[in-house]
Design goal:
alpha/beta, 26% strand, 137 residues, 7-stranded mixed sheet
Length: 137
């Protein structure tokens, strides 16, 4: 599947399209360069799923928890950018999140690739020369 976001004003529509065609599995890994829009797209996804809390990058906390009205009871938003060793991920109890029924949205999954479940959905956010973004999964 491929979704093109031509303008930031279209991001919520793109997020809803993503939700409409979301693959099976509760773990979604978002790949993309720094500044590609991973956090921005996850924020739009959460808004479309009914999260009323402020959605921010969990860069320092590693994980944020949100409740929503249109999805599983919880959404977990991870940012593994600052992870130095896999032991940190083991210590946080990643299995309790990844193998629950809750939706897990992961930024910088390449840093914990070997811990991702087999049924993970890998989403690539690719910056285009004209400034648009291509979402590929």
């Amino acid at each position: 599947m491929e979704i093109v976001i031509n303008n930031i004003k279209d991001i919520n529509k793109a997020a809803q399209t993503f939700i409409d065609y979301m693959p099976e599995g509760n773990v979604i890994a978002f790949y993309g360069n720094m500044g590609a829009g991973k956090t921005t797209f996850i924020k739009a996804l959460c808004e479309e799923l009914g999260v009323e809390d402020e959605v921010t990058s969990p860069t320092f906390a590693i994980v944020n928890e949100y409740t929503c009205t249109n999805a599983p009871s919880k959404i977990y938003h991870f940012d593994f950018y600052r992870i130095k060793k896999l032991e940190e991920v083991y210590d946080m109890g990643y299995e309790d999140y990844f193998y629950s029924d809750s939706l897990c949205l992961i930024e910088w999954p390449e840093l914990i690739e070997e811990l991702l479940p087999d049924d993970v959905t890998k989403v690539h956010i690719i910056e285009q020369p004209d400034g648009s973004r291509k979402i590929v999964y």
